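Render DUF1918 domain-containing protein in 3D.
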Amino acid sequence: MRASVGDQLVQHGRVVGQHDKVGEIVEVMGKKGEPPYRVRFQDGHEGVCSPGPDTEIRHRETMTGQ
């Protein structure tokens, strides 16, 4: 998994009724875009994440259509 600053990290809900948690990657702490990532979530919370299999990276270029 590789990401850049500005990409979105999406943690999919694990149980029925649990919403996805979406955040913006504000720092890439690994080498060459690899985890861990510092993420700012929509509620303002920031944390360091090492994504698991329930996580998706939405690249900035894909979101803007470039």
